[in-house]
Amino acid sequence: MKSKIHSLFLCLFFGFTYTLYAQEAVEKVYTTGPQRGTLVVVGGGKLDHVILQRFIELAGGPAAAIVVIPTAGGKNKYDDNDGGAEQLRKYGATNVTVLHTKDRSIANSTEFVKPLLEAKAVWFSGGRQWRLVDAYKDTKTEKLLWEVLNRGGVIGGTSAGATIQGSYLARGDTKNNQIMMGDHEAGFSFIKNVAIDQHLLARNRQFDMFNILDKRPELLGIGLDESTAIIVTGDEFEVIGKSYIVVFDGSFWSREGSKLKNLPTANNLFYFLRPGDKYDMKERKVVIK
Asked: Whole-prediction pTM value?
C-alpha cells in the first residue's frame, strides 16, 4: 500500500514539474533581429556623421540606391531633399530617392514601390510612428522593405524611424506622444519581441518604458538617446554614436559589478550601454569582450 502511495506521489510530483517546465518552455519569448540584412536604429536628434557614414557603408557605398521615406513627419508633400536625403548626399550618397504617400492604395501599387525593387537601403526619418503604420503596414511597400533586408540590404531610421522597426509600437497613440501604449501597437517587426523608445536621456524618458513592460513583461525594452544608434546584425547589436542607450531586460549590468549597489526590484531595473558595447538580444545579455 505504501509503495502504491509513494508511486502515486512521484507520478503527481513529476507530472506537476513537467507541466510547469512545459508551460515555461511555451511562454519563453525570444527577441530576434532579421535573418539577413542590417538595421540602423537611431535615437533621434542631430544625426552624428559616424551614424550616417556607417549607414552608407552598409548600403554598399556612395553609389548604392537609397530610398528615404519621410512620411512620419506628417506633411502632404516632400521634396527631394527632405527626410535626411540632403544629409545623405552631403556624406557622399549619389543615388537617393524620396518616397512618400499617405494613401494606402498608392502604397499598395506596383508603380509606387518601383524604387524599392532595386534599393540597397531604406531610411525612415522622424515624426510620429503611427503615420508609417497607417500608410504602409500590410501593403506592397512593407513587403518590399523586407525584400531589401532579404537581399542583404540595410534599413535605418531615426526617432519615429527607430521605433517603427520594433514589433511593439511605443508611443503609438494618435492623440499625443506621451501615451506609451496607444491606439497603434504594432510596428514593422524587423526586430521581434521588442519595444524601442527614442530621445531617451534628452527628454528624461528613462522610466517611461515601464508603462509597457508592466503589461508586456515578455518584451525587451531598448531606449536610445539622441545622436546614438544600435547596429543590428542578426540577434546582436553594437552601440555607436555620441551618447548612451538603455536596456530594459529585467536584469542589471555594470563594468564594476553590482554586489555593492543598492538596486531596485527586478521589474524596475535598467542599465546603460555606451558606444562600442555589444548586446545579444536573443540571450538578453551583454556581450563581454
From this structure: 0.90
